[in-house]
Amino acid sequence: AAPKPMKAQAKLVGDIISKPPILANQNISINEASKILIENGINHLPIVDENKNLVGIITSWDIARAVAQNKNSILEIMTATVISSTVDEPIDVLARKMSIYNISGAPILDKNKKVVGMITAEDLSKLVGIRAKL
Amino acid sequence: AAPKPMKAQAKLVGDIISKPPILANQNISINEASKILIENGINHLPIVDENKNLVGIITSWDIARAVAQNKNSILEIMTATVISSTVDEPIDVLARKMSIYNISGAPILDKNKKVVGMITAEDLSKLVGIRAKL
Ligand SMILES: C[S@@+](CC[C@H](N)C(=O)[O-])C[C@H]1O[C@@H](n2cnc3c(N)ncnc32)[C@H](O)[C@@H]1O
After folding, report:
1. What is the spatial distance between Cα A35 and Cα B39, in angstroms, rounded to a whole number?
2. Strands (DSSP E) found in chain B
């Protein structure tokens, strides 16, 4: 039988996160943050405190901002008010949230507010390719 | 009547590009490229020659690479083999191409190979939110 069209409404954020998240502490330097982004081929780095609680996010755009505006510390370029999601949020709700807040990624939190993954616009845009095939 | 589900197959890249592209010349510095990204709130900067032909692309990830690896010139961090698209390419084909090549954006070229726009993973991920509403 032909595959059924995917129901977007049924798909949850938890269905498409896979990797353990790459996280960093807020004491790192801009150079160290850049290295983490490059070595892992990623654009988003959630920043956590000693208890692994989310305190901010650094993206490669923030690194470009540091270069453009001669900022020298993570705290100057980090976004502290992080738009996040949970594993049980429908993917389309997260997609709209990312669109409304004009962000390219969101850390995914579990019930205890620990970061368990990241979802980026790249992850979501892959769904466009998949759906169109059905 | 209720809106019909959007047919992904029918949608072309040209249907979702709107803004004129922000472009730069390859003679700019890394600092200037960073400023263009930040002032325009973008992550991708197609690089063109005097004749407006595409010669590369710079993203904020490349700026992070310059910071991580102490690179000092655009030519060192620019990706010269650019994956591009055309206004008449179906959106889902572009989405798969971006996924396969692990890129987060593609310059859109017209028949004369001039850059007429950019499509990013963020643009595509907005479609996930829209489709899910139907
Ligand atoms: C391999 S990705 C890794 C990070 C992330 N996946 C992303 O796309 O931003 C980053 C590299 O892709 C390159 N890139 C982005 N868009 C491109 C395109 N349309 N064609 C070729 N290379 C591109 C950038 O210049 C950068 O060096």
Report:
1. 24
2. 24-25, 44-48, 54-59, 85-86, 105-109, 115-120
Looking at the domain assignment, is residue B3 inside a domain? no
**Residue B1, in any domain of the structure:** no
> Amino acid identity of A62?
D
Residue A2 located in a structural domain:
no
The domain total for chain A is: 1
- Give domain status of residue B81, yes or no: yes
User: Of B30, B63, B128, which has the smallest distance from its Cβ to A8's Cβ?
Assistant: B128
pLDDT string in tens for chain B (134-residue length):
556 555 544 589 999 997 789 999 999 999 999 999 999 999 999 999 988 899 999 999 999 999 999 999 999 999 999 999 999 999 999 999 999 999 999 999 998 989 999 999 999 999 887 755 43
The ipTM estimated for the assembled molecules is 0.89
- In chain B, the residue whose alpha carbon lies closest to the alpha carbon of A30 is B67
CATH number (domain holding residue B91): 3.10.580.10
Local structure of A68: helix, strand or coil: helix
> pTM for the whole thing?
0.89
Indicate yes or no: CB of B67 within 8 angstroms of CB of A67. yes
Q: Cα–Cα distance between B31 and B55 in angstroms, integer?
A: 19
Pocket test for ligand 1, best of B23, B42, B54, B61 (most atoms within 8 A of CB): B61
Range of the domain at B124: 8-133
